Amino acid sequence: MAKITIRAVLQQRTLKSITRAVGVGLHSGQRVELTLRPAPADTGIVFRRVDLPEPVDIPMRAESVTDTRLASTVSTGGAKVQTVEHIMSACAGLGLDNLYIDITADEVPILDGSASSFVFLLQSAGIELQKAPRRFIRVLRPVEVREGEGDNLKWARLDPYHGFKLSFEIDFDHRVVNATGQRYEFDLSVGQYARDIARARTFGFTKEVEYMRSKGLALGGGLDNAIVMDDHKVLNAGGLRYDDEFVKHKILDAMGDLYIVGKPLLAAYSAFRSGHALNNKLLRELLAQSDAYEIVTFEDTRQAPRGFGEIARAW
Ligand SMILES: [Zn+2]
What we know:
Layout: E1 11-15, E2 19-24, E3 31-38, E4 45-49, E5 56-59, E6 65-67, E7 73-76, E8 79-81, H1 85-94, E9 99-103, H2 116-125, E10 127-133, E11 136-139, E12 143-147, E13 154-159, E14 164-169, H3 175-178, E15 183-187, H4 193-196, E16 203-205, H5 206-214, E17 227-229, H6 245-259, E18 265-272, H7 276-288, E19 293-296
Helix pairs in contact: 1-2, 1-6, 6-7
The chain binds zinc ion (ZN).
Protein backbone atom coordinates (compact mmCIF):
# COMPACT_ATOMS: atom_id res chain seq x y z
CA MET A 1 0.00 0.00 0.00
CA ALA A 2 1.35 3.40 -0.90
CA LYS A 3 2.27 5.59 1.97
CA ILE A 4 0.42 8.88 1.86
CA THR A 5 2.47 11.89 2.92
CA ILE A 6 0.66 15.08 3.68
CA ARG A 7 2.86 18.04 3.15
CA ALA A 8 1.89 21.47 4.33
CA VAL A 9 3.52 24.40 2.56
CA LEU A 10 4.59 27.26 4.80
CA GLN A 11 2.19 29.87 3.45
CA GLN A 12 2.21 33.64 3.15
CA ARG A 13 -0.03 35.60 5.46
CA THR A 14 -2.12 38.73 5.29
CA LEU A 15 -4.88 40.23 7.43
CA LYS A 16 -8.38 38.81 7.52
CA SER A 17 -10.09 42.19 7.85
CA ILE A 18 -9.43 45.91 7.74
CA THR A 19 -8.35 47.73 10.89
CA ARG A 20 -7.63 51.38 11.71
CA ALA A 21 -5.60 53.48 14.13
CA VAL A 22 -5.31 57.19 14.83
CA GLY A 23 -2.42 58.89 16.59
CA VAL A 24 0.29 61.52 16.30
CA GLY A 25 3.72 61.37 14.67
CA LEU A 26 6.61 61.39 17.15
CA HIS A 27 8.62 64.00 15.27
CA SER A 28 5.96 65.94 13.36
CA GLY A 29 3.39 65.98 16.18
CA GLN A 30 0.88 65.74 13.34
CA ARG A 31 -2.41 63.79 13.63
CA VAL A 32 -2.40 60.77 11.32
CA GLU A 33 -4.76 57.92 10.45
CA LEU A 34 -3.63 54.43 9.47
CA THR A 35 -5.80 51.90 7.67
CA LEU A 36 -4.33 48.39 7.53
CA ARG A 37 -5.79 46.32 4.68
CA PRO A 38 -5.33 42.77 3.41
CA ALA A 39 -3.08 42.52 0.31
CA PRO A 40 -2.71 39.74 -2.31
CA ALA A 41 0.12 37.19 -2.13
CA ASP A 42 3.55 38.51 -3.16
CA THR A 43 2.53 42.15 -2.59
CA GLY A 44 4.80 42.59 0.43
CA ILE A 45 4.15 45.48 2.77
CA VAL A 46 3.25 48.70 1.00
CA PHE A 47 2.65 52.13 2.51
CA ARG A 48 0.13 54.21 0.53
CA ARG A 49 0.07 57.98 1.04
CA VAL A 50 -3.65 58.60 0.58
CA ASP A 51 -3.48 62.30 1.52
CA LEU A 52 -1.63 63.31 -1.66
CA PRO A 53 -3.51 64.51 -4.79
CA GLU A 54 -2.66 61.14 -6.38
CA PRO A 55 -2.10 58.25 -3.93
CA VAL A 56 1.56 57.14 -3.92
CA ASP A 57 2.68 53.58 -3.05
CA ILE A 58 5.93 53.03 -1.18
CA PRO A 59 6.93 49.34 -1.22
CA MET A 60 9.34 47.96 1.39
CA ARG A 61 12.78 47.42 -0.10
CA ALA A 62 16.25 48.11 1.30
CA GLU A 63 16.67 50.93 -1.21
CA SER A 64 13.36 52.56 -0.19
CA VAL A 65 15.10 53.80 2.96
CA THR A 66 16.23 57.36 2.27
CA ASP A 67 16.79 58.84 5.74
CA THR A 68 17.90 57.19 8.96
CA ARG A 69 18.38 60.15 11.28
CA LEU A 70 16.32 59.41 14.43
CA ALA A 71 14.03 56.97 12.60
CA SER A 72 13.76 54.95 9.40
CA THR A 73 12.17 56.94 6.58
CA VAL A 74 11.10 55.29 3.33
CA SER A 75 10.23 57.11 0.14
CA THR A 76 9.33 56.85 -3.52
CA GLY A 77 9.86 59.91 -5.67
CA GLY A 78 8.88 62.85 -3.50
CA ALA A 79 6.54 60.92 -1.18
CA LYS A 80 7.85 59.68 2.16
CA VAL A 81 6.77 57.97 5.35
CA GLN A 82 8.84 58.44 8.50
CA THR A 83 9.26 56.19 11.53
CA VAL A 84 8.20 52.91 9.91
CA GLU A 85 10.32 50.69 12.19
CA HIS A 86 7.82 49.89 14.96
CA ILE A 87 4.95 48.79 12.72
CA MET A 88 7.43 46.88 10.53
CA SER A 89 8.74 45.19 13.67
CA ALA A 90 5.21 44.08 14.59
CA CYS A 91 4.74 42.64 11.07
CA ALA A 92 8.07 40.78 11.37
CA GLY A 93 7.28 39.50 14.84
CA LEU A 94 3.86 38.20 13.78
CA GLY A 95 5.06 36.79 10.46
CA LEU A 96 2.86 38.99 8.28
CA ASP A 97 3.93 39.08 4.61
CA ASN A 98 1.38 41.14 2.72
CA LEU A 99 -0.30 44.33 3.86
CA TYR A 100 -1.42 47.72 2.58
CA ILE A 101 -0.90 50.51 5.08
CA ASP A 102 -2.90 53.56 4.01
CA ILE A 103 -1.57 56.65 5.77
CA THR A 104 -2.86 60.24 5.82
CA ALA A 105 0.43 62.03 6.66
CA ASP A 106 4.17 61.48 6.32
CA GLU A 107 4.79 59.82 9.69
CA VAL A 108 3.49 56.60 11.30
CA PRO A 109 1.76 57.39 14.62
CA ILE A 110 3.98 56.71 17.62
CA LEU A 111 1.07 55.40 19.76
CA ASP A 112 2.70 54.20 23.02
CA GLY A 113 6.28 54.26 21.66
CA SER A 114 6.50 50.47 21.35
CA ALA A 115 5.12 47.91 18.88
CA SER A 116 2.46 46.53 21.21
CA SER A 117 -0.39 48.67 19.86
CA PHE A 118 0.42 47.49 16.35
CA VAL A 119 0.53 43.89 17.55
CA PHE A 120 -2.90 44.36 19.15
CA LEU A 121 -4.33 45.93 15.97
CA LEU A 122 -2.97 43.20 13.70
CA GLN A 123 -4.09 40.41 16.02
CA SER A 124 -7.56 41.94 16.29
CA ALA A 125 -7.90 41.96 12.49
CA GLY A 126 -6.91 38.28 12.34
CA ILE A 127 -4.64 36.36 10.00
CA GLU A 128 -5.45 34.89 6.60
CA LEU A 129 -3.26 32.17 5.10
CA GLN A 130 -2.63 32.67 1.38
CA LYS A 131 -2.10 30.29 -1.52
CA ALA A 132 1.57 31.09 -2.01
CA PRO A 133 4.67 29.85 -0.20
CA ARG A 134 6.46 32.24 2.18
CA ARG A 135 9.72 33.35 0.63
CA PHE A 136 12.71 33.81 2.93
CA ILE A 137 16.12 35.36 2.38
CA ARG A 138 18.53 32.73 3.67
CA VAL A 139 21.96 34.13 4.56
CA LEU A 140 24.72 31.82 3.28
CA ARG A 141 27.85 33.46 4.68
CA PRO A 142 28.73 36.22 7.16
CA VAL A 143 28.13 39.82 6.13
CA GLU A 144 29.28 42.64 8.38
CA VAL A 145 29.31 46.44 8.43
CA ARG A 146 31.36 48.57 10.82
CA GLU A 147 31.72 52.24 11.59
CA GLY A 148 34.03 54.28 13.79
CA GLU A 149 36.83 53.18 16.10
CA GLY A 150 37.47 52.90 19.83
CA ASP A 151 34.64 54.50 21.82
CA ASN A 152 32.79 55.26 18.59
CA LEU A 153 32.89 51.74 17.19
CA LYS A 154 29.60 50.24 16.08
CA TRP A 155 28.91 47.20 13.98
CA ALA A 156 26.16 44.89 12.78
CA ARG A 157 26.41 41.51 11.11
CA LEU A 158 24.43 38.59 9.73
CA ASP A 159 25.53 34.97 10.03
CA PRO A 160 23.92 31.84 8.58
CA TYR A 161 21.30 30.38 10.95
CA HIS A 162 18.33 28.05 10.46
CA GLY A 163 15.85 30.44 12.02
CA PHE A 164 15.97 34.10 13.00
CA LYS A 165 17.67 35.40 16.10
CA LEU A 166 18.98 38.77 17.17
CA SER A 167 21.61 39.59 19.71
CA PHE A 168 22.16 43.23 20.59
CA GLU A 169 24.48 45.11 22.88
CA ILE A 170 24.09 48.76 23.78
CA ASP A 171 26.67 50.83 25.61
CA PHE A 172 25.01 53.79 27.31
CA ASP A 173 26.97 55.44 30.07
CA HIS A 174 23.94 56.51 32.08
CA ARG A 175 23.22 55.37 35.62
CA VAL A 176 19.69 54.11 34.80
CA VAL A 177 20.76 52.18 31.69
CA ASN A 178 23.90 50.90 33.43
CA ALA A 179 21.71 49.39 36.12
CA THR A 180 19.86 47.29 33.51
CA GLY A 181 21.01 44.57 31.11
CA GLN A 182 22.77 46.11 28.11
CA ARG A 183 22.82 42.89 26.12
CA TYR A 184 19.95 40.64 25.06
CA GLU A 185 19.36 37.79 22.64
CA PHE A 186 15.98 36.98 21.15
CA ASP A 187 15.29 33.89 19.05
CA LEU A 188 11.99 33.91 17.17
CA SER A 189 11.75 30.10 17.43
CA VAL A 190 12.05 30.10 21.20
CA GLY A 191 10.82 33.45 22.52
CA GLN A 192 7.48 35.13 22.08
CA TYR A 193 7.70 38.46 20.27
CA ALA A 194 4.47 39.91 21.66
CA ARG A 195 5.45 39.04 25.21
CA ASP A 196 9.23 39.51 25.19
CA ILE A 197 9.95 42.38 22.78
CA ALA A 198 6.89 44.24 21.49
CA ARG A 199 6.19 46.22 24.68
CA ALA A 200 9.65 47.83 24.88
CA ARG A 201 9.35 51.59 24.36
CA THR A 202 11.64 54.04 22.65
CA PHE A 203 13.69 56.14 25.07
CA GLY A 204 15.28 59.53 25.36
CA PHE A 205 16.92 61.95 27.73
CA THR A 206 15.42 65.29 28.78
CA LYS A 207 18.49 67.17 27.49
CA GLU A 208 18.12 65.60 24.04
CA VAL A 209 14.37 66.16 23.98
CA GLU A 210 14.85 69.88 24.65
CA TYR A 211 17.44 70.08 21.88
CA MET A 212 15.28 68.14 19.41
CA ARG A 213 12.25 70.33 20.13
CA SER A 214 14.35 73.40 19.40
CA LYS A 215 15.00 71.82 15.99
CA GLY A 216 11.31 71.10 15.43
CA LEU A 217 11.67 67.37 16.18
CA ALA A 218 10.07 65.07 18.78
CA LEU A 219 7.09 67.44 18.80
CA GLY A 220 4.69 64.54 19.48
CA GLY A 221 6.98 62.95 22.08
CA GLY A 222 6.33 62.77 25.79
CA LEU A 223 5.88 60.50 28.77
CA ASP A 224 2.95 58.74 27.08
CA ASN A 225 5.09 57.38 24.25
CA ALA A 226 8.69 57.17 25.43
CA ILE A 227 10.82 56.37 28.44
CA VAL A 228 12.20 59.77 29.40
CA MET A 229 15.19 60.11 31.72
CA ASP A 230 16.96 63.04 33.33
CA ASP A 231 20.57 62.64 34.56
CA HIS A 232 19.51 60.39 37.41
CA LYS A 233 16.22 58.60 36.90
CA VAL A 234 13.30 57.51 34.76
CA LEU A 235 10.63 60.22 34.86
CA ASN A 236 7.68 58.00 33.81
CA ALA A 237 5.46 57.36 36.81
CA GLY A 238 5.11 53.66 35.97
CA GLY A 239 8.87 53.04 35.62
CA LEU A 240 10.11 50.42 33.15
CA ARG A 241 8.04 47.66 31.49
CA TYR A 242 10.98 45.24 31.38
CA ASP A 243 14.14 45.34 33.51
CA ASP A 244 16.09 45.54 30.26
CA GLU A 245 13.59 47.60 28.25
CA PHE A 246 16.31 49.72 26.55
CA VAL A 247 18.18 46.93 24.79
CA LYS A 248 14.90 45.17 24.02
CA HIS A 249 13.71 48.28 22.20
CA LYS A 250 16.89 48.19 20.10
CA ILE A 251 16.02 44.60 19.13
CA LEU A 252 12.47 45.72 18.32
CA ASP A 253 13.90 48.49 16.08
CA ALA A 254 16.37 46.11 14.40
CA MET A 255 13.56 43.65 13.58
CA GLY A 256 11.62 46.47 11.93
CA ASP A 257 14.64 47.88 10.09
CA LEU A 258 15.61 44.45 8.75
CA TYR A 259 12.06 43.58 7.66
CA ILE A 260 12.18 46.55 5.26
CA VAL A 261 14.22 44.22 3.00
CA GLY A 262 10.83 42.81 1.94
CA LYS A 263 11.13 39.20 3.11
CA PRO A 264 11.85 37.49 6.41
CA LEU A 265 15.52 36.65 6.96
CA LEU A 266 16.90 33.28 7.95
CA ALA A 267 19.96 34.52 9.80
CA ALA A 268 21.54 35.34 13.12
CA TYR A 269 21.81 39.12 13.45
CA SER A 270 24.22 40.51 15.98
CA ALA A 271 25.02 44.13 16.67
CA PHE A 272 26.96 46.45 18.91
CA ARG A 273 25.56 50.01 19.25
CA SER A 274 23.89 49.72 15.84
CA GLY A 275 21.03 51.93 14.75
CA HIS A 276 18.73 52.61 11.80
CA ALA A 277 21.56 53.75 9.50
CA LEU A 278 23.84 50.78 10.10
CA ASN A 279 20.94 48.30 9.94
CA ASN A 280 20.04 49.57 6.48
CA LYS A 281 23.69 49.56 5.40
CA LEU A 282 23.85 45.90 6.46
CA LEU A 283 20.86 45.04 4.24
CA ARG A 284 22.41 46.83 1.28
CA GLU A 285 25.73 45.07 1.88
CA LEU A 286 23.94 41.70 1.92
CA LEU A 287 22.02 42.39 -1.30
CA ALA A 288 25.18 43.65 -3.02
CA GLN A 289 26.76 40.19 -2.61
CA SER A 290 24.62 37.82 -4.63
CA ASP A 291 26.53 34.77 -3.32
CA ALA A 292 25.79 35.71 0.31
CA TYR A 293 22.11 34.77 0.22
CA GLU A 294 19.43 32.80 -1.58
CA ILE A 295 15.65 32.90 -1.67
CA VAL A 296 14.01 29.78 -0.23
CA THR A 297 10.53 28.44 0.46
CA PHE A 298 9.42 25.50 2.60
CA GLU A 299 7.22 23.05 0.72
CA ASP A 300 6.99 21.10 3.95
CA THR A 301 6.45 23.14 7.10
CA ARG A 302 8.30 20.50 9.09
CA GLN A 303 11.53 21.55 7.37
CA ALA A 304 11.08 25.16 8.41
CA PRO A 305 12.83 26.40 11.56
CA ARG A 306 11.17 25.36 14.77
CA GLY A 307 8.05 27.35 15.54
CA PHE A 308 7.89 29.16 12.17
CA GLY A 309 4.65 27.43 11.24
CA GLU A 310 3.07 28.61 14.47
CA ILE A 311 4.59 32.03 15.01
CA ALA A 312 1.22 33.65 14.68
CA ARG A 313 -0.55 31.03 16.79
CA ALA A 314 -1.77 33.67 19.18
CA TRP A 315 -3.94 35.19 16.41
ZN1 LIG B 1 12.27 52.62 18.03
